[in-house]
Design brief:
- The complex is a heterodimer of chains A (about 210) and B (about 120).
- In chain A, the strands form two sheets. In chain A, strands 2, 3, 4, 5, 6, 8, 9, 10, 12 and 13 form a ten-stranded antiparallel sheet that branches. Chain A has a two-stranded antiparallel ribbon with strand order 7-11.
- Chain A contains one helix and 13 strands; from the N terminus they run αβββββββββββββ.
- Helices cover about 10% and strands about 35% of the residues of chain A.
- Chain A has about 210 residues and is mostly beta strands.
- With about 120 residues, chain B is of the alpha+beta class.
- Chain B has a domain of about 70 residues.
- In chain B, about 20% of the residues lie in helices and about 35% in strands.
- Chain B contains one helix and six strands.
- Classes of the chains: A mainly beta (about 210), B alpha+beta (about 120).
- Chains A and B meet through helix 1, strand 1, strand 2 and strand 13 of A and helix 1, strand 1, strand 2, strand 3 and strand 6 of B.
- Strand 1 of chain A pairs antiparallel with strand 6 of chain B, so a sheet runs across the interface.
Chain lengths: ~210, ~120
């Protein structure tokens, strides 16, 4: 009995060691590099973009009175859109263009061009809306002169920019779109909030159910 | 013969206990696993990583992670969006093609206004 116990203990110890090695050897390391960290999230960004057909208008056809609405997260600095907009609620008139096949994938795009008179120093900082289809204008670009651009930016709340299309002119012709993809607004990076934070590379799209604009 | 049987039973029990004990003492902070296992290292620092997102009606529908170090290209990245300390959406894993990567197909589309942080994890390359 005295001799059997040490033998048994030695056997148990050897067994445990062998199992440990075998168990570890059975592990499979699938990635030898594991990296973790945090990333800053946007402090200022477009919240939404949407289009509205003018009452009595043709759905899918860009025409006078149709509306594009962009909402920014709280804190927009209006002066970064228009240099002569020191306060929160403003309105100017200018030219809005639908540019024929100007998007990176060949879709038509919407941009804001010259501003009437001396407002905004003549230039409005907006960015580009990819309209999700190449069919909104054909034969060239179309300018909507005397379009109205209105900003409503209550203190501490999201700011809303409303662009109402004016009169169409130009080499191209507005045409009706019956199917397409959501529109995507890519802001000009110069747009900032009152803390100087750029809107950066953040974008906004119309809902997947909204594939025809205007 | 009887002693041999008892010894065999004790030995078998010890095998089970050893395996259980081995699992219990593992820690996620261990740099090595077992004898001769590969050392876990990082692919680089993610301190410059930043997120841009696309919103639809105020909700985050996709994210772009930029500022990824060159050493992480080819790795598998997962992003988690946080509301406070709560994970509200995850994206990936997706292979990192370069210094930035676009991730669509998030597990949820949380309100952008609710998100105040994001965590990243890269496995490999």
């Amino acid at each position: 009995m005295r001799r059997a116990l040490p033998v048994m203990a030695a056997a148990v110890a050897a067994g445990m060691s062998a199992v440990g090695v075998a168990w570890a050897a059975g592990l499979t390391v699938t990635a030898q590099k594991l990296t973790a960290g945090s990333a800053a999230v946007p402090g200022f960004y477009p919240v939404s973009v949407a289009t509205t057909n003018v009452t009595g208008g043709t759905r899918g056809l860009a025409e006078t009175g149709d509306i594009l609405t962009v909402v920014f997260s709280p804190g927009l600095n209006p002066a970064t859109l228009c240099s002569s907009w020191p306060s929160r609620n403003q309105k100017v008139k200018g030219t809005v263009a639908i540019n024929d096949n100007a998007g990176s994938t060949g879709n038509d795009t919407l941009t804001v061009g010259a501003i009437n008179g001396s407002a905004c120093g003549g230039t409005f900082t907006f960015g580009t809306v990819d309209l999700g289809s190449a069919g909104y204008v054909t034969g060239g670009s179309v300018s909507f002169t005397n379009s109205t651009i209105t900003l409503s930016s209550p203190m501490g709340s999201p700011a809303t920019l409303v662009i109402t299309l004016g009169s169409a002119s130009g080499t191209g012709t507005p045409t009706r779109v019956t199917s397409g993809n959501p529109a995507i607004y890519t802001p000009a990076t110069a747009i900032q909030n009152t803390s100087g934070v750029s809107i950066g590379a953040n974008t906004s799209s119309t809902p997947i159910t909204s594939v025809v604009q205007f | 013969m009887k002693r041999f049987r008892i010894g065999a039973v004790v030995f078998a029990a010890s095998l089970a206990l050893a395996a259980q004990a081995g699992a219990n003492v593992l820690s996620a902070t261990n740099a090595t696993l077992g004898a001769g296992a590969g050392t876990v290292t990082t692919c680089g620092s993610l301190t410059s990583a930043a997120i841009a997102w696309n919103t639809t009606a105020g909700n985050v529908t996709s994210v772009t992670v930029s500022g990824i170090p060159a050493g992480c290209v080819g790795g598998s990245l997962t992003v988690t969006l946080l509301a406070g300390s709560t994970a509200v959406a995850t994206g990936g894993p997706i292979t990192v093609p370069g210094p930035s990567v676009w991730i669509a197909g998030l597990s949820a589309q949380p309100a952008a206004s609710s998100i105040n942080g994001a965590s990243l994890a890269v496995a490999g390359p």
